[in-house]
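Data card: per-record layout.
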Amino acid sequence: MVIFDSSVLIDDLRTGCHSERILDLDDLVRTSAVVLSELGRGATTLAEQVFLRRLERQYPVLTPTEKHWIDSGQILARIHKDKGFEAQKLRELHFDVLIALTARAHGARLITSNRDDFELIRGYREFGLEVW
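The structure for this 132-residue chain is written out next.
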């Protein structure tokens, strides 16, 4: 099972750079509610809105649990302590932590083009990660 991070979907929507790889996957695809939220926040064109609705309809949506929200705060506190990141960077990481925890809970591999942030998160909680 795979979950795509918004970075891969945005790159593909804008340039088609991942289309062939996406089509070649044999895995079950699931969508993260967090990714849908991120995409919805930026979907301003009709094409982007159509893409988002199609994504919602075609793939089951996985949602972070109460435990994921609580764990995400604890992970971010540890990252803040270890790395000294400011509040803005921690806010930027928060949704990524939730996506990673959701993928982990379902045994899914997270596919992203955001290597740095997700490898940082994986240093605090292991999950399947593939970087494109």
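Known properties of this structure: DSSP finds seven helices and five strands in the chain. The chain has one domain: 2-131.

See the next section for split statistics.
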